[in-house]
Amino acid sequence: MTAPTDRAAILIEALPYIRRFHGATVVVKYGGNALAGSEVASFAEDVVLLHSVGIKPVVVHGGGPQIGELLDRLGMQSEFRDGLRVTDAETLDVARMVLVGKVNRDIVSAMNVHGPIAVGLSGEDAKLITAAPHSVELGFVGTVLAVDPSILRRLLAEDLVPVVATIGADETGQAYNINADTVAGAIAASLDAEKLVFLSDVEGVREDPSDASSCIRRLSADRLAELLESGRAAGGMIPKAEACVRAVRAGVRRAHILDGRIEHAILLELFTDGGIGTMVMP
Amino acid sequence: MTAPTDRAAILIEALPYIRRFHGATVVVKYGGNALAGSEVASFAEDVVLLHSVGIKPVVVHGGGPQIGELLDRLGMQSEFRDGLRVTDAETLDVARMVLVGKVNRDIVSAMNVHGPIAVGLSGEDAKLITAAPHSVELGFVGTVLAVDPSILRRLLAEDLVPVVATIGADETGQAYNINADTVAGAIAASLDAEKLVFLSDVEGVREDPSDASSCIRRLSADRLAELLESGRAAGGMIPKAEACVRAVRAGVRRAHILDGRIEHAILLELFTDGGIGTMVMP
Amino acid sequence: MTAPTDRAAILIEALPYIRRFHGATVVVKYGGNALAGSEVASFAEDVVLLHSVGIKPVVVHGGGPQIGELLDRLGMQSEFRDGLRVTDAETLDVARMVLVGKVNRDIVSAMNVHGPIAVGLSGEDAKLITAAPHSVELGFVGTVLAVDPSILRRLLAEDLVPVVATIGADETGQAYNINADTVAGAIAASLDAEKLVFLSDVEGVREDPSDASSCIRRLSADRLAELLESGRAAGGMIPKAEACVRAVRAGVRRAHILDGRIEHAILLELFTDGGIGTMVMP
Amino acid sequence: MTAPTDRAAILIEALPYIRRFHGATVVVKYGGNALAGSEVASFAEDVVLLHSVGIKPVVVHGGGPQIGELLDRLGMQSEFRDGLRVTDAETLDVARMVLVGKVNRDIVSAMNVHGPIAVGLSGEDAKLITAAPHSVELGFVGTVLAVDPSILRRLLAEDLVPVVATIGADETGQAYNINADTVAGAIAASLDAEKLVFLSDVEGVREDPSDASSCIRRLSADRLAELLESGRAAGGMIPKAEACVRAVRAGVRRAHILDGRIEHAILLELFTDGGIGTMVMP
Amino acid sequence: MTAPTDRAAILIEALPYIRRFHGATVVVKYGGNALAGSEVASFAEDVVLLHSVGIKPVVVHGGGPQIGELLDRLGMQSEFRDGLRVTDAETLDVARMVLVGKVNRDIVSAMNVHGPIAVGLSGEDAKLITAAPHSVELGFVGTVLAVDPSILRRLLAEDLVPVVATIGADETGQAYNINADTVAGAIAASLDAEKLVFLSDVEGVREDPSDASSCIRRLSADRLAELLESGRAAGGMIPKAEACVRAVRAGVRRAHILDGRIEHAILLELFTDGGIGTMVMP
Amino acid sequence: MTAPTDRAAILIEALPYIRRFHGATVVVKYGGNALAGSEVASFAEDVVLLHSVGIKPVVVHGGGPQIGELLDRLGMQSEFRDGLRVTDAETLDVARMVLVGKVNRDIVSAMNVHGPIAVGLSGEDAKLITAAPHSVELGFVGTVLAVDPSILRRLLAEDLVPVVATIGADETGQAYNINADTVAGAIAASLDAEKLVFLSDVEGVREDPSDASSCIRRLSADRLAELLESGRAAGGMIPKAEACVRAVRAGVRRAHILDGRIEHAILLELFTDGGIGTMVMP
Lengths: 282, 282, 282, 282, 282, 282
What we know:
6 copies of one chain form a homohexamer. By secondary structure, chain A is an alpha/beta fold. The first copy, chain A, has a single domain (about 20-280), classed as Acetylglutamate kinase-like (Carbamate kinase), CATH 3.40.1160.10. Chain A contains 9 helices and 14 strands. In chain A, helix 7 packs antiparallel against helix 8 (about 235-250). The longest helix of chain A is centred in the middle third of the chain and has 24 residues, at about 90-110. Chains A and B meet through helix 4, strand 5 and helix 5 of A and helix 4, strand 5 and helix 5 of B.
């Protein structure tokens, strides 16, 4: 057990950070890979902690693996192009049910065990996300045309934590499934957020994609853009890195890519001198 | 086409009602039977009309048929006891996905075509509905233990229309599926609503259940309670009638059971001298 | 009697208009010719309807015929120059009594039968209208030097309907009688109103003044200015047309000249697809 | 000229009174007898002074002599019963024009020379005064059935000075002419005013009506009621004295009957140790 | 150095406490014995930490030793009766200069190094503390007659931390020096505080005054009152214990007597499961 | 005794000034020379009068003579350079105790006899005054680096009167003693004050320093700057004159140097046509 002096020391180290981030909006992208029960509970506890010390968190989540699972159970097969699932009306229905009716619910419930603070949203609510089709071939896969953060601001002003499922709708009400990393970045920019945090399953951005020890602790948005152009980011890191670049260029103070496998990674990043993962600055 | 004089006459007949209900909270239960696409659009248009003239609607919906359909597709079979579906964890997951991720979404989208005004909620959001198990044998079928209408009041104060899927959660975060008629009544009571409106598929409460021409136009909550005790209400009418009795006794000014098959039934009930269906008064 | 379906259709046609004009300021000039008792009641009902659906009406009225009548009874004779009554101190006293103490009162009373919503004002109240003499020969006939809409904004913010008699005062407190059409336009501009509506006794602006069938349904402020310059507007239409041009150029979205002899002309103009009379646009 | 020390002394004597009455509502009844031009200007200046040091004045006025004058000019003859003018519809019209359109205007204008602070009201505005007939024989002479001070509170909250003409209306909108002393008392009671001040043309209430030197400086409402019952008040003093008794019994802290012929009588009463006239206390 | 897991664990242990005390008023009595420079800095840091996580601290301090020191330097001798210093006008002047002009300043300055958050107050400011003489013999030693917490509430509402020197004044403006423990209790009661915390130089209330190991961890106000009556509290513990009893009985939720010699004692008491010192409950 | 007419005349002369200065911020520098008991009471009464008629006074004071007195009693000797006292840590401690703990208290107490309106502040409170060393040789004598008027604005918004002792602190919390004339000017500029008033012990700025009859009634800031450059101001007048020039150039409407020996000098300056002393304009 930690000695009283050490306990006090840790609380006191956290002080300037707690003060600095008081009232700050922090958008957290929570990945679909990390949604086993106990992890959701741990993640929810962290978000509740941020909220309880005056930070205004906004959670954005995907759910690719969970969508695939239900499609399998329904015997529906998907075609993929460039790594994106071709989405017809029926597939979209399944994706929406899973994202809004299952993943979103699991996160909201895990947080509300601590008090009435989380509210689940889809991008369709109060026209939060206006979507456009990504490309004709992909069907109802969408891109972000516009974000209207009014409903988020209203909920944040009421001291609630919005949890956003990344379904958007176009002007006719047609729904689209959108990449959650992209949505997280767009929401952070629309809210002029202090921080955008990605909880990924790697330790951060690597100088050399094949070398786990080459993780970069801090870099500028311009430098990250160069890395992207030089093709040195791969797979799921690409949309995260792109979202970081865009968000920081749009005014978000700091973007972070953290290793979500480390328990309480957000707390350690925000409240200790060390920090963890990769930080992207203007 | 209606003549100018008649047009003016209808607008003017509507005037005292529009004035009387300005700012009034009206809880509308929208049934799962009436969820084909065009009907949702028509229903959504009516709610948007109420909203645009200053009424504060709250929509509560079920979705039994849609849940049954997905269970069928997944090859999951349900046992029924006293007309209620025995609900294990997996069935609950399906029910929640359908209610929150499909039915709720369809209603919200249909309304938001008219502007950014609808926000979908589950009873789990911000601890809106605290549930308790209905009985041990039924598994995760719940009853309403408490309603905390804070999130509804906040959204109404922001001029938004809450659309509520009737999933509740207990203190540990465990979800339950709850009868939507019951939830509608409890929400109306918790909001001290002006009106509680059920859109059903019959013309109203009948003096003689087997005689469609015996529809009662207005009766007191006490008289309706007597009808219930005498066994003269049947099937799906029972939870609606019970909810009407409880809501009116708890302070709701008027409860209505309307024939949702008549297009724009709500508008005709609220804004014309005639009214339609059955009205329950204190 | 209109069928339920038609009733619903009319309510639904009105919906987008009611929504669009919610919260909008609409300045209505009500003419002195139309002040017989039953007409005032009908006009008042229309304004109360606008108010009850969230529109913010401001009524401006004149009262030339009524002034003439009292002058006659008092045996006071007036000289006219260019169609304007030469107004000495005693005549002004009579005009003020009639406008503020009779016409204004009749309109306010007719509205307040429906609830405590109308408040009568003279341009002297809270320095609403600062006047200057129109010309030396005309005595206390004034022009509008400045409008301070503070008192109007305060009353509108309290959900009240200001009814304005068009007496103004200069810095020394000296009162002047001002043309009501001109005042209506100046007030609409000062409030950045959505609409300025003149209730006249013709069907609208005519392409050919002598041809009642040449009524123009919509035209631009510039086109209307041309018509004025070319001398194709006559008599009482001139100050109305001039006020429309000035108001639209000053930012008022739409100005209308309607035929006040059609019952409920305002309702039909605002809430039906057809519209009536002449609409002036930027 | 007063010496600096004396000037300072007077300012300092006024200090505790200015502080005590800051924010206090003071209802002032201004009589029709005192409405010659220069007197109105002097009265208006006094009210503006009260307003400028944070007092919230409400002015109530009559105008009997002015009404009589216009009736004479129109050749209309009046019958009197118990000192009250029998008022038919035409007489009422004249009374209303004079009170609302002339006397009220003169007072408002005189105040607004000093800034945009006065707003004229009739008891018909926003249902300020609900009237009932005084008696069948007297026609449209009214009594006060109810006062709804909402519009007064709104204007006072906006730092404006309401000037009230004592016309009231019944539920059908029918207007009545009401004794101004009675209205002043009812308004003071409805506003829970600090003071009710009558500016009369005598030096105050007399112990002996025929002895000008028997003026009573201060007495209780009960004592004044006794004087009234014993018949020792006469003529115009009766409604004033009755209004004082009723207002003080309804919670008004102090009622005053001052000699309005003394210039700046209100200032001397409120801001100097001496006071003048008769003060009625609980 | 503490491991990441332990760091996270400590932050997470603190979570429910930080949430529970968010917005709570905590009155802290800081003793004169503990005013050496480094201790003030450490104490100030603790208070700033409480403030930064949303707690509303109010600091109350004495300064007996510092007063004695300046009296010595000035060659002024004091007589003591029942442990209280007989205080003539000159002694009071010295006490006030030391408390308000030195001790209060040192605490305020130490806090404001962290930001513009502390504001020094004397009980004379805005009539915070109305005092009465303690007894004739003691001169200007006062007791608390009344606390008007308005100024404290205003500063707390502005997110500032009041630091109160315990000088009070009577209605004539005459100042008195008052025991700081008593003032702290009275202020906590007047603010309906969540907690009253005494930082003393012993480990807490002892069952047996002579036995340091008999410290009581938690007891009721009634039990503490019994201990006081039985004479088992001694010296400086008496006013602290009395203040605890009175404050808890007046509605303060918890009163604590902590050992101020332990660094960061407040943090450990508030934010860890263990707690330290003696807690007094209703 | 002054006659009623004269009393009324004086009140009425004061009217336009009271109205003009309503809500205006007036910074008053009160000198250390004028701190004998009865004078403080008279000064306090004047400030309370200003406050009671809606002016927002801010009092700034020094206390040189009182500091010297306590240093003498403590046997501490001071060295002076260019008229400024070399201030070591111990001297600073004494200065701070005297200014904050004695002079400030005396002024606050004298005002609060009239009601809970004065709040004493040091420049250290809420970082009101950030100081820098004046010069190395003078030790803890400071100059004004920055003024953060937030705490003053907050107290003024709450209708309180701040009384400021002119101690400032640098970023490390180190305190400095600063010339009160300079601080008064800097505070007036930071508050965009209507007026800056110095109560001195001469009749005003002289054209010829040696000729008391050459007092200048009004001059521009530029003209005063010329007088300063030409060396025609002497002694304590220099910092006052410099502060006037700087404040007026920074936007303060008027600066005044009055003879504080005339009783109620502020009242006579503000509220009478004559005015007294020297007025500095842009």
